[in-house]
Amino acid sequence: MNVLDSELVDGQLRALGLAPTDQMTGADVILFNTCSVRQHAEDKVLSRLGQLRRLKSRRPHTVVGVIGCMAEREKEGLFAKAPHVDLLCGPGELNRLPGLLQEVWERHERVTALAGSLSRRTEVLARAMEYDSLEALDLSRAPQTGPAALQSYIRVQRGCDKFCTYCVVPFTRGPERSRPAAHIVAEARMLAERGCREVTLLGQTVNSYVQQEAGRAVRFAELLERVQAVEGLDRIRFVTSFPADWDEDIFRVMRDYPRIMPYLHIPAQSGSDAVLRRMRRTYTAADYLRLMDTARRYVPHVALAGDFIVGFCGETEADFRRTCELVERVEYNTIFVFKYSNRPATAADRNLADDVPTEVKIARNRELLAVQSGIGLRRRRAMIGQRVEVLVEGYSKVARQAQAALARGDAPLVQESEQDRGAEISRTRAAQLVGRSPGDLIVVFPGGPELIGGIVTVRVEEATPLTLLGQVEGVVSPPRAAAAAEPGASSVRAAGAGLSLPLLSASPDACAG
Ligand code: SF4
């Protein structure tokens, strides 16, 4: 969600005549797009803000702003912690950002746009009035061009009404509101026309999507069906789903339309019913397991991903064992594990003791990842010899490092007698591409820039717990002109606007579902 917000803000800043820069010291505007899901993410923002004090005193006209969830959560208190900040803007007020910047430039005063301390009921009414301008912000997005256009996010929903006891999102992003289906489809069409091949529909609980249209309710399954029909799109994904709101029609649509990728990210958070109750997740571990079984019945090759919080208030060793058992039983392709981090003003903060020692949280985090590492390796090794279709995103991280080393003329890190072999290895690594399978698995393989932006068939030859390695066997669909590769093109996932807009988020999906 934060990545998409950064992209929208990037468009707003460009419309004001600003351009991204990688020179923080020369920037006229420095915005931090922030995440509040964990304390660690907020600490990083405060530390980065602290580093700007001297720059701000040298260049007082540089506007320093904090946008996103941390601005909303901390409110004006952030000015006390970082007095050189000029602007605060919550995630539900981003449509007001250009006006706020004008105010700072003209009046040289601090400005804020926050949801305030309205009650949720008053807030719903106030938000309904503001909704049109937020909707206009999404519709006004300046689409990426070149390789960056290949994959895009589309917001289908704002906010969340679940109030899981550990989560700040309902406070920082406000009530759940679904966007009109026609707007979402129009956005998908516009992105496809500009070379986008894969869209990911985003919502905190995306499967709860419902929007009234001509007197009837359009639900998420129908929205998926409409988006997959957009000409030019090859792949449709969605994150993140809330287990208790699942609707079997979504599985039917996934089964019937091959452009909807066989990938489901459904956070479980815990395998213990006692912990799930304290988290107010409204489902049991058995409910969750039934849902996973149903998913595999409809879409047998579906790739499953899940989120887990370890060390939540009162989590015993026995509770944690149930989580490990659930992970073993589901056999995920990927999991994301977070150590519980108490967030001020949440129900858990007010009513429950954060009583699991840090070292226990760290040990459980490590153990759960180790459990998944074994499963991930097993599942990926089972794919050796298979062919997978891969959307080629760009050069791998290893390749970009090797390219940079070769450009600098760095000697390979091998003994002198092995220099030639080392140089050969560097050149081989420099030509390594990366892409994603339909199940969102990372696949690396040798190839040239002419493949970037295309869909290729890769024969899997090796596997690690997180990656498949193989060789290209054929091109399923070549790159399209609008998203064709540029020399040196790297990852093509949407990103923030360089150093003028640092994206300080724990993970794009860490706050969802
Ligand atoms: S964890 Fe997800 S579903 Fe629960 S309140 Fe936060 S955003 Fe909503």
Describe the structure.
There is one protein chain. The chain has 513 residues and is of the alpha/beta class. It folds into 4 domains: 2-119 and 495-504, 3-Layer(aba) Sandwich (Rossmann fold); 145-261, Transcription Regulator spoIIAA; 262-381, Transcription Regulator spoIIAA (2-Layer Sandwich), CATH 3.30.750.200; 387-483, OB fold (Dihydrolipoamide Acetyltransferase, E2P), CATH 2.40.50. Helix content is 39%, strand content 20%. It is built from 18 helices and 20 strands. The protein has helices at 2-15, 39-51, 53-58, 69-74, 77-81, 97-107, 120-139, 169-172, 181-193, 220-228, 248-256, 273-279, 285-298, 317-330, 347-351, 358-381, 397-408, 419-430; strands at 29-34, 63-68, 87-89, 111-113, 151-155, 157-158, 177-178, 198-202, 210-213, 216-219, 235-239, 263-265, 303-310, 334-339, 387-395, 432-436, 442-446, 455-463, 467-477, 503-504. The protein has a 5-stranded parallel sheet with strand order 4-3-2-1-20. Strands 15-16-17-19-18 form a 5-stranded mixed barrel. Strands 5-8-11 form a 3-stranded parallel sheet, covered by helices on one side. Strand 13 (303-310), helix 14 and strand 14 form a beta-alpha-beta unit. Helix 17 (397-408) crosses helix 18 (419-430). The longest helix is centred in the C-terminal third of the chain and has 24 residues, at 358-381. The radius of gyration is 23 Å and the shape is globular. Iron/sulfur cluster is lined by residues 160, 162-164, 167, 169-170, 204-205, 242, 511-513.
